[in-house]
Structure formats: structure tokens, C-alpha cells
Design a protein that fits this description.
Layout: E1 2-6, H1 10-22, E2 28-33, H2 37-47, E3 51-53, H3 56-63, E4 67-70, H4 77-86, E5 90-93, H5 101-108, E6 118-120, H6 128-138, E7 145-155, H7 176-179, H8 182-192, E8 195-203, E9 214-221, E10 226-232, E11 234-246, E12 249-255, E13 264-268, H9 275-282, H10 292-305, H11 314-332, E14 336-337, H12 346-349
Parallel strand pairs: 1-2, 1-4, 2-3, 4-5, 5-6, 7-10
Antiparallel strand pairs: 7-11, 8-9, 8-14, 9-10, 11-12, 12-13
């Protein structure tokens, strides 16, 4: 495959290029695009990429990539993803994939039934720890899900938000709920399935931003499980944490920006005394950290099969719809059910529905 990178900032070099290099046996980076010509040239020179561009359309026409990694700020994602899809290229788009459900739906409308597809960077689904847990849940081995806790308690000082597009509804789509907690919430949903209802609050407590800097929510799932969700950029001790209480066991994950198998713990319920059964819960086939590399490997497998990637289409929309509902609940003070936000709803077109905190 021929791959290209759009946006040569930190995330491209730190996460996307290592993932592409790990798959060098089946993908080759042929071009990079950035509005800053010098930065594009320096990036290509540093990483041995043949062609540097400042115009996405020109790159798509000349380099003819099969896959494009979109690593630009959120407010340009939708237009760039559509351009890539219309040129026949598959896309891996950084989170958040779009500023609203309306943008996301317009973006995926450019997909075709047999591809190309646009996948979202929800990399925590793809570590071996999460895959192992989902197998246990699917097999019913852990019993019925009852309670969950999902924490993204990070710290970002005011200087972080001095980047012009951060902390604004019109360019970032939201605050930590949209830009930070989206990863843990996606893993929560990937484990427990469809959500049914959300009740939330959000506040701007300590940062000079237009969006929230903290949000809290209670979420009911279709299977009856209840979850508590916290998203913060005000927390001095940073942590990403998930806890799932099933009838047979508690499963916990504690990490920051990525996990390995050692970050997962399984605690059996008091009535579970079969040591071999518990040992099987704690034993995984491999130790694959959650990462862009794990996600890209899965996407390339899907490309080779001609299948839709997991985090494209409805698989990418599920988490974005929860975030829209969380914001609507927080800003209106009312519970929101899944499906309530249709094409006539202001929260379909903007994450804040045109309201302020």
C-alpha cells in the first residue's frame, strides 16, 4: 500500500510514523502534507519520505495514496477526510473525527459500500488486554455487567490551551470530553455495548477556555449496566482508569496514555473459587499494548480482506453520539436517550447546540 500523512505535527511523528514503520512489509509512506512548506520538507527529510506537499488535492492527484493518515486539527478533519475518500483512498483519522454528528455523517457519506472507508483513531480497543476482556464478556464468562467507572483525569495547564484552535467549540468541538476522554469512553462502549441514556454536568472551573474543562456523567446501557464517567484536565495526579463490575468478577485497568497486559487486574467474586477459571481470566494469548500500531495492523487486515474497519461508520459514530448526548444533557439539564439527537436537533450540528456553559 501507498500511504500519506496529512499534518506533520507532534502526533504524526510520535504515533503514526512508528505505526507505519512497524508495518513496512505491507505499507510504504510516499508523501506528507502540511500548510507550512518548510515543516513539510523537514518532516519528509527527517523520515525519508519522497514527496512533500502543501496542498492536499495536489498530493492526492500526484501521489495516489491507498491510505491517508489525517493528523490535522479537528476543524479540518471532515473536509480532508471527504477529499481523501472521494479520491479513492482509505483514511485513518485522528480523534475527534469531526466537530459534530452532522460533520461525521457527511464525512461517512463519502464512503462506498465496498470501500474506501474512514476509520477513527480509537486505539485502546486494539490492545490484547481489551480484546481478551471482550472475548470473556462475549462468552459470558464474567457474568452480567452491572457497574462501570470510566475516568480520564488528566492535567493540562493554561499554556496548553494557548494553541489557537484548542478550547473552542468551533475548532476543537469541545473540551476534555471530546479531545481527551473520548479514548476511555470508546473502550467503555466497546466493552459494554450500546448506551441507552445519559445524565451529565459540565463546568469551566479553572481554565480560560470557551468549552468545559471538566465533565461528569451517569450512563445507562442497553444491557442495564450503569456507568460513572469523569473527564478532566484539572487533575494533578493523572490517570486513565476503567473498572467493570460483573456478577463473577471485577476487572480493572489503570494506565495513562496506553496500556499493556500488566495494567489489567481480575478480582473474582467471593463465590468464584475455581482457581483454574480465574487463572484463565488472567492469562492472555499475547501482550500487545494499546497503540496506533495495533490499530493500524487491524485496519490493514481489513483493507486486505476488503472489510469495513472496526472504528469506521457506525463503529466510529457510537462514541461521538454519546459525547453529543453528554453535552446536550449538561447544557440543558435534562437526560438524553440514544437516538434523541436527530437531524433537526441543534446538538446534531454543534456539540454545544449553540449554547454556552
Amino acid at each position: 500500500m501507498r500511504a500519506a500523512i496529512v499534518g506533520t505535527g507532534g502526533i504524526a511523528g510520535i504515533c503514526h510514523l512508528p505505526a507505519l514503520r512497524a508495518e513496512a512489509h505491507r505499507v510504504r509512506v510516499v508523501a506528507a502534507v502540511d500548510v507550512d512548506a518548510e515543516r513539510a520538507k523537514d518532516f519528509c527529510a527527517a523520515h525519508d519520505i519522497p514527496a512533500a506537499y502543501t496542498d492536499l488535492g495536489e498530493m492526492l492527484a500526484e501521489a495516489r495514496p491507498d491510505l491517508v493518515h489525517v493528523c490535522t486539527p479537528p476543524h479540518v478533519h471532515a473536509a480532508q477526510v471527504r477529499a481523501c475518500l472521494e479520491a479513492g483512498a482509505w483514511v485513518l483519522c485522528e480523534k475527534p473525527p469531526a466537530l459534530s454528528l452532522a460533520e461525521y455523517d457527511a464525512m461517512t457519506a463519502a464512503e462506498r459500500d465496498d470501500g474506501p472507508y474512514a476509520a477513527v483513531v480509537y486505539q485502546h480497543r486494539f490492545g490484547s488486554g481489551a480484546r481478551h476482556l471482550r472475548r470473556l464478556v462475549t462468552d459470558g464468562e464474567l457474568g452480567r455487567p452491572l457497574v462501570a467507572v470510566c475516568l480520564t483525569t488528566w492535567h493540562r495547564d493554561q499554556a496548553y490551551f494557548n494553541v489557537p484552535w484548542r478550547g473552542r467549540w468551533d475548532t476543537e468541538g469541545g473540551g476534555p470530553t471530546m479531545g481527551h476522554g473520548i479514548h476511555q469512553m470508546d473502550l467503555l462502549l466497546a466493552t459494554l455495548g450500546d448506551w441507552a441514556e445519559v445524565r451529565a454536568m459540565a463546568g469551566r472551573l479553572a481554565r480560560d477556555v470557551a468549552t468545559e474543562d471538566v465533565s461528569v456523567a451517569s450512563v445507562r446501557f442497553e444491557n442495564g449496566a450503569l456507568a460513572s464517567v469523569v473527564n478532566s484536565v484539572l487533575s494533578p495526579r493523572e490517570e486513565s482508569r476503567l473498572r467493570f463490575d460483573f456478577t463473577e468478577a471485577t476487572v480493572e485497568l489503570s494506565h495513562l496514555y496506553g496500556y499493556a497486559n500488566a495494567d489489567w487486574t481480575y478480582t473474582p467474586a467471593p463465590h468464584v473459587t475455581d482457581e483454574a477459571r480465574v487463572a484463565a481470566w488472567r492469562t492472555q494469548d499475547q501482550d500487545l499494548p494499546s497503540s496506533h500500531a495495533a490499530l493500524l495492523a487491524d485496519l490493514l487486515d481489513a483493507y486486505e480482506r476488503g472489510d469495513r474497519p472496526q472504528t469506521s461508520g457506525a463503529g466510529g459514530r457510537q462514541t461521538l453520539e454519546l459525547i453529543a448526548a453528554l453535552y446536550k444533557s449538561a447544557l440543558t439539564g435534562r437526560p438524553v436517550r440514544r437516538g434523541d439527537i436527530d437531524g433537526t436537533d441543534p446538538f446534531y450540528r454543534e456539540m454545544n447546540g449553540g449554547m454556552d456553559l
